[in-house]
Amino acid sequence: MVRLAISLDPLRSLYSLAPLVHAAQQEDIDARIEVVVKSFGEHGVPFMWSVGPFAQPTDLGARLESHGLSHADELPGMAVDLQAINQDAPRPSGLATERVSDEQALRERVELIRVGFEMPEFASEAIIDVLTHMSLTDGSPFRSYLGKLDGEAVSSSVLFLESGVAGVHNVVALFGATTLDDVRKVLDEHPINTVIMGAGIYLEMRLRIVRHVFEASDSTTVHMKDWDSGPEGVRPFVKEVLNGPA
């Protein structure tokens, strides 16, 4: 059996569950792959097929490439014995983590995902549609969580429970810093993709922060807002950095 989730909205197809081919039906795996590729092709929408370390058959990746798919990316995975986790690890004062149980909290979580993974604004509704069915349904193995620091949403993740294993996915955290010491601490503790800097910090400090970021990381981009656009220009500036020019 091949399970498909196809939508005429490209984002909904991209965020659908990858097609599943049951191990007992691998004798005609190439024919089944062709069914999937053809189905999406007929609808004219893109799709992705995630292949994990336990995917069957073991040469599934090579077979997919032989049917015209390309290897897009490698996603790292980590594992830990839950009994060995240090639950006494320090956490920021004022940070509260809650399970997402309604649409409002889900929208806050999706906005963090969109910003953290640098997605366009139009992706939000497609992601909300998928996650509503995945994590707001009774009995679903998917559980979404939202972290709030002093009432403001700053982190997000999803927990997937299956076969005695807990998978943690789509982890996003936003950090704020106003001094060089703040920046040093964040960069020391977390991999940062993007730094967005307002004009409220005096120029010499901004340049010192930029220099430290570039010395500490070869993969972090820095975006500095101008002074003349004033406070009302902050939001448009951040949106342009994350979404690209209008």
Could you characterize what this model shows?
This protein is an alpha+beta fold. The protein folds into three domains: 10-66, no CATH class; 91-173, Aminopeptidase (3-Layer(aba) Sandwich); 180-243, no CATH class. Helix content is 36%, strand content 17%. The chain is built from eight helices and six strands. The strands form two sheets. It has a four-stranded antiparallel beta sheet, covered by helices on one side. A two-stranded parallel ribbon has the order 5-6. Strand 5, helix 7 (203-216) and strand 6 (221-224) form a beta-alpha-beta unit. The longest helix has 15 residues, at 29-43. It is globular.
Please describe the biggest sheet, giving its number of strands, its sense, and whether it closes into a barrel.
4 strands, antiparallel
Instruction: Determine the N-to-C terminus distance.
Output: 43 Å
Return the CATH class of the largest domain: Alpha Beta
Strand fraction? 15-25%
Low-confidence stretches: 1-6, 10-24
**How many E-type strands?**
6
CA radius of gyration is 21 Å
Tally of distinct domains = 3
Kindly identify the CATH topology of the largest domain. Answer: Aminopeptidase
Question: With helices defined by DSSP (H or I, 4 residues minimum), what is the helix count?
Answer: 8
- The side-by-side strand order for the widest beta sheet comes to 1-2-3-4
Approximate helicity band: 25-40%
Q: What is the CATH architecture term of the largest domain? A: 3-Layer(aba) Sandwich
| Secondary-structure element order, N to C | HHHEHHEEEHEHEH
The rough form would be described as: globular
Mean pLDDT across the residues is: 77
Q: What class would the helix/strand composition place it in?
A: alpha+beta
CATH superfamily of the largest domain: Gcn5-related N-acetyltransferase (GNAT)
